[in-house]
Amino acid sequence: MTTRVIEVDPARFDRWMAGFAERHGPYAAAEESTPGGVVVSAHAADGSTVVATPFAHEPLGVVLVRRGGYAVGLAVGGSFTASKVGTRRVQSRTAAGGWSQQRFARRRGKQADELVDAVVGHARRVLLGDDESPRAGADGIPRGLVVGGDRTLVREVLEAGALRALHGLPMRELYDLPDPRRDVLEAALRRGRAVRVELTETSETSEPT
After folding, report:
1. Domain Actinobacteria/chloroflexi VLRF1 release factor spans what residues (predicted)?
2. Structure pTM?
3. Which pLDDT band, with edges at 50, 70 and 90, does 130 fall under?
């Protein structure tokens, strides 16, 4: 028995489930409505199972931060309506010891703080329209977030008071992404909107990804 997670484009999900039935036989399914969409749990004739979790929040905010750069975007229907991508250098760790190591650590910490401040500013503009306290349910405000990059930097950005309107939103985490660039931002949106399928197979038949 093997279990793996597959990300399926929402438009392909019905076809993917049809392929699951072809490989594993008829299945019984249960559905549960959630704010992010309908979660599907299926149990096939050969014992293979599927738990499919969508992330259908609209609009969807994306915040990516690494020490090599950042990307922020607001998307509706799979396309960005606003975005900002940039680079901002944070010095790498040094092998030097003593006073030099302390000096480099202070410089690195200052650069990281400046990066966080810059991303907070861009996120406030792109995701909140420069309004730190938008009314609940206001148009254009994210209903969910996709985040990725450096966990610590992402956490520091989202904990900023200027972004308190985003606190508590449903979140999909993608910490395996490389340094944010435009193509990485687009990939994060595709993966963030995907139906996340947890597939457990009891046979050697493999599913397409």
Report:
1. 59-198
2. 0.84
3. confident
